[in-house]
Write a structure and sequence with these properties.
17% strand; 20 strands; ten-stranded mixed β-sheet; Alkaline Phosphatase, subunit A; globular; alpha/beta; Gyrase A, domain 2; binds zinc ion; four-stranded antiparallel β-sheet; single chain
């Protein structure tokens, strides 16, 4: 009896052992549902909103502070974290490069967007940053053969999609195509931009979809663009109170076709006839207002910020750039544009509070570059500056190559302050590219308004650690950039004598706002220097995900709660 009991006990134990063994061979079970993903990232806000203000100088936050209401810029500055010394750290400071660098956390060295347009030395033609003939226009008649394929690295928006196993939505919105396409990277659900001319529609490309969603079609049919253009643009407040800018009629402003003076009020209904019909909206504050309208429609139409996963909305306000280019950085038109953008921001923040919820979203606001004071205006104040004469420069370079190498065909292209050598011709003439580059670099220094020159060879073999050559090196891509690069004098632009532009590595072009605001962001401000490439790794750390694959920035610790 004792024996049989022992046997029974033994066999039970055996069975148990076998059972345990069988169990350990099977995959351990875990709860499989969206709930588990949600848990991984449960501390993340439901919506990230990136706001880029095209051509916004840092000093607009300060200069127009008392013109802003409590709910727009001021709300971000005073309840968020205001970084006052953020700079672009490469040349050239153009729109495409800026948007790519913000979202990839690196510079043209790695992301390959070396300008808006550049000379492609392999195809031997000028190309545009987001052109792509593999895709077609969606939602309009033209302007849609676009994709982000020239951008070689991932964006923070790509990384968020990858981290969430392609869940969550990412959507880009801007008047300019490049400003909607580059921020949302290669995995975006959509990027929408505005087609002017006789269309007046937000549209996209087959890279994203074959048909626009109903909410986009409804928005385009709503007649909003038309309504904005049938109004008059006058100053928001009494123009006499706009004491921060030059007189309304000054010598440094460009103007619309069909207008005698660059002065308020602007009869848009009349002006649209001579200024590209719907394209006029790009160049006035209403361009920012309709961008805000469309962003709100996107949040409602796509239920952004309401799902299990974190969504990303990348907005870029393009009209500030058009106004800055046309009127300069010190015009009444520009001041009014920022006062009105402040109202759009206030409305948008209130909308986010209501639709997404105060604790469910996080925002960052920055700019893709700043801009220089109109050089002619600086000259009137005895400050050096001027205009770079590209035609004269081409002639000058021709004479150099003729004199030294007895050929006028050695330069294939000059663009973005870079010279591209004709490698075929060099071969024919048995000339050494490195030697020719050095001779040209030495000689062009004598040209009016050229400040520094450097060869590609030097940039490949020297690591600059500071100064303007470091900035130039950060913008230099070995595979894509030219053979000789040069830097114009400070406040020297290749532009008309009215209005202004940007593109340099000087502080007036590199110093931009950066404010983080919302869920899990500290409150405060800082005067510490940060390069623009720190935004993406900061967001990666904030979201607890991997940074973009070319990221060269570091985390801005002080903004994180
Ligand atoms: Zn821009
Ligand atoms: Zn611009």
């Amino acid at each position: 009896m004792k024996k049989s009991l022992a046997l029974i006990f033994l066999s039970f134990t055996l069975i148990q052992c076998i059972a345990i063994k069988a169990e350990s061979n099977a995959a351990p079970t875990v709860e499989i549902s969206n709930k588990t993903y949600e848990k991984n990232y449960e501390n993340n806000p439901k919506l990230i909103v990136g706001i880029v203000v095209d051509q916004m100088r840092y000093d607009y936050l300060v200069k127009f502070y008392n013109k802003y209401g409590e709910g727009g810029f001021k709300r971000l500055m005073n309840s968020g974290y205001n970084l006052k010394n953020v700079h672009y750290n490469y040349i050239p400071t153009y729109t495409a490069v800026g948007h790519a660098s913000i979202y990839t956390g690196t510079t043209p060295v790695n992301h390959g967007i070396i300008s808006n347009n550049w000379y492609d030395k392999y195809q031997k033609k000028s190309i545009y940053c987001v052109d792509d003939d593999n895709y077609k226009t969606v939602g309009a008649n033209s302007g849609g053969k676009k994709s982000p394929h020239k951008m070689l690295t991932t964006t923070i928006t790509d990384q968020l999609k990858l981290a969430q196993n392609m869940n969550g939505k990412s959507i880009g919105i801007a008047i300019k195509d490049r400003s909607a396409i580059l921020p949302t990277g290669h995995t975006a659900d959509a990027a929408y931009w505005f087609e002017g001319g006789d269309e007046g529609k937000f549209m996209t490309s087959t890279f994203y979809m074959d048909k626009v969603p109903n909410w986009v079609a409804e928005f385009n049919n709503s007649g909003k663009a038309n309504n904005y253009l049938n109004q008059t643009w006058d100053t928001y407040y009494n123009i006499d109170t706009y004491t921060e800018t030059l007189p309304d009629n000054n010598n440094f402003e460009g103007q619309f076709k069909g207008k005698e003076t660059p002065t308020f009020p602007y009869n848009l209904k009349e002006l649209r006839k001579l200024n590209g019909n719907y394209s006029l909206i790009k160049a006035i504050p209403a361009g920012n207002t309709i961008t805000t309208d469309f962003a709100e429609a996107a949040i409602l139409g796509e239920n952004l910020g309401k799902g299990v996963f974190t969504d990303f909305l990348a907005i870029s306000y393009s009209s500030t750039d058009y106004v800055g280019h046309q009127f300069g950085v010190n015009a009444k038109e520009l001041e009014d544009t920022y006062i009105r953008l402040d109202k759009d921001l206030e409305r948008f923040l209130n909308f986010l509070d209501t639709e997404v919820g105060r604790n469910n979203y996080t925002i960052f606001l920055t700019a893709d570059h700043a801009a220089v004071q109109v050089p002619a205006y600086l000259n009137s104040l005895k400050i050096p500056g001027g205009y770079f004469d590209t035609d004269k420069f081409k002639e000058f370079v021709n004479n150099i190559t003729l004199e030294h190498f007895n050929s006028e065909e050695l330069i294939e292209n000059i663009s973005n302050y870079q010279l591209f050598l004709n490698k075929q011709k060099l071969k024919e003439l048995k000339l050494d590219a490195q030697y020719v580059s050095q001779v040209i670099a030495n000689e062009i220094l004598a040209f009016e308004n050229v400040y520094k020159t450097v060869t590609a060879h030097t940039l490949q073999t020297t690591s600059f650690t500071s100064g303007i050559l470091k900035t130039l090196q950060n913008g230099y891509n070995q595979k894509l950039s030219g053979d000789i690069l040069f830097v114009p004098n400070p406040s020297t632009i290749s532009y008309s004598k009215t209005g202004t532009t940007h593109g340099s590595g000087y502080a007036y072009d590199t110093h931009v706002p950066l404010i983080f605001y919302g869920a899990k962001i500290s409150k405060g401000s800082s005067n510490r220097y940060y390069p623009i490439v720190d935004i993406a790794p900061t967001l990666a750390s904030f979201l607890n995900i991997t940074e973009p694959n070319g990221s060269t920035g570091t985390v801005i610790l002080e903004v994180l709660e």
